[in-house]
Specification:
Length: 472
């Protein structure tokens, strides 16, 4: 029975024969990066009762028993990070299999929709800024950065495996690397001087609901599970299929943390997005069993969403920040300043390097204890109103703001709720807004439109987070 179940299992992971070596998922293979100094999980399938796993860095041999389905799991003690390469040998008494080029370093799991998926060589008519240059020079990170790009795979039930092999960093491979993931890895490698591995598990257009399993989605009355597998529904709009086909086969691969760039497809669900994303994170962490590992989000970019003056995009950005507050050990990087003037109709803003760097700075400060780096954008703290003038106080703005005159993007409204452009001036660490069209300021907002790129920064170069405030 075990041999039969094993044959069924390996048929799902690409095919093999019982006489062959141990079968491994794509994510466990040549050039993989293991999380350093931990008990890293490895797994696979075999028709034998026991599989032996020998790691070259210590010479230790681990033994793992197979279950009735032929699957085995083992945790191996990994070495401290270095640029030394290692091998791992798998034996089941029938044949053996060795994977080579293994590194120990820092492993991060990237997921979301198209702005995380977007490779260095861009999409059709939508480039990544300096993408070709970064591809050309990527070879200098050979032996330092690796990436596994997970194939889009829809499934109605949890899959055993998914395509996505580890690739070395060189131009022929790097052109297909997630641009955000690549720039995060480059920055983190520069900061820590250790290898960095990125698992890019993204599907353009996907909703949060696509990354949750059926047993959780049934709790939501607004989710139509009959859409999963429906040929009349675009795959990226379907619930649970990404979780089953792409995420589930990777659960347990030991990582340092998660990076999440998603939200555009949930643009009209801002009321439920914070709780639902927090629910997703809680579930992922439970499945991985690594505790409250970091989960860092990326703001959706300024974009028209069919109405440049609308606020659905602004409401979703607000919801993302609420989600980051709900998620233990969560964080979010602001991207309000990272759209060019001509990108109002381009949901894939071209500037990916600053996003990757801001994520890396957050990880450096919060997870690696590097002092001296600022990673948090200025956020509104409180407001003092005096007639048609208001003084705004902020967190994370110790050095004040730039520019210090004629700050753009601020609006105020009175009792009638009609907003007018306000004159804004930096006053030490605060900002004063004024408008002679309003008798008594009741509401203040900054860049609270679908399309209104931010131009105000802290002196550390981080953008002011868009906000809205209403006097109670």
């Amino acid at each position: 029975m075990k041999a039969l179940n094993y044959l069924l299992a390996i048929a799902m992971v690409g095919g093999a024969s019982v006489a062959s070596a141990v079968t491994l998922p794509d994510i466990i293979g040549d050039n993989m990066v293991l999380q350093q100094s931990c008990e890293a999980k490895l797994w696979g399938w075999s028709a034998a009762d026991v599989v032996k796993v020998t790691v070259s860095w210590s010479g230790i041999t681990y033994e793992a028993a197979t279950d009735d389905e032929g699957r085995w799991n083992v945790a191996v003690a990994t070495p401290a990070a270095s640029y030394d390469t290692y091998s791992i040998k798998f034996e089941d008494g029938r044949a053996d299999k060795t994977i080579n080029g293994v590194l120990a370093g820092e492993v991060w799991f990237c997921s979301g929709q198209s702005n995380m998926e977007m490779p260095l060589n861009g999409f059709w008519t939508q480039p990544v800024e300096n993408g070709n240059r970064d591809i050309a020079y990527s070879g200098k990170y050979r032996g330092k950065i690796r990436m596994a790009t997970i194939a889009k795979s829809a499934a109605l039930a949890p899959a055993d495996s998914v395509e996505g092999k580890w690739k070395e960093c060189e131009p022929v491979n790097a052109r297909w690397f997630s641009a955000v993931g690549y720039h995060f890895a480059v920055a983190l490698n520069s900061l820590l001087d250790v290898p960095v591995g990125i698992i890019n598990c993204s599907w353009g257009g996907s909703h949060v609901e696509g990354w949750l399993p059926r047993e959780e989605l049934v709790k939501y009355s607004d989710v139509d599970l009959s859409q999963a597998g429906d040929a009349d529904v675009r795959q990226w709009d379907q619930p649970m299929i990404m979780y089953n086909g792409m995420l589930y086969p990777l659960i347990g691969y030991t990582v340092k943390g998660f990076l999440w760039n998603q939200g555009e497809s949930n643009i009209n669900q801002h009321d439920t997005y914070p709780q639902r994303l927090a629910h997703m994170v809680q579930l992922w962490r439970e499945k991985w069993g690594l505790g409250d590992v970091p989960f860092y989000c990326v703001e959706v970019p300024p974009y028209s969403y069919g109405d440049v003056d609308g606020i659905n995009g602004a409401l979703l950005r607000e919801a993302q920040h609420k989600a980051a507050e709900l998620i233990p050990n969560g964080g979010i990087v602001c991207t309000s300043d990272l759209s060019k003037p001509y990108e109002a109709e381009d949901i894939h803003a071209s500037m990916k390097q600053p996003i990757g760097e801001r994520l890396a700075f957050m990880a450096a400060v919060r997870d690696y204890g590097i002092e001296g780096i600022v990673c948090d954008s200025p956020t509104l703290k409180s407001v003092e109103v005096d007639g048609n003038s208001a003084l705004l106080h902020f967190d994370n703005a110790e050095g004040g703001f730039t520019p210090n005159r004629n700050l753009q993007g601020f609006e105020v409204a009175g009792d009638d709720g009609v907003f007018y452009q306000a004159t804004a001036t930096a006053v030490e660490r605060d900002i004063r807004v004024e408008c002679d069209k309003v008798g008594e300021i009741v509401e203040v907002r900054y860049c609270f439109h679908n399309w209104m790129p931010g131009k105000v920064h802290s002196t550390d170069g981080l953008p002011l987070v868009p906000f809205r405030y209403k006097v109670k």
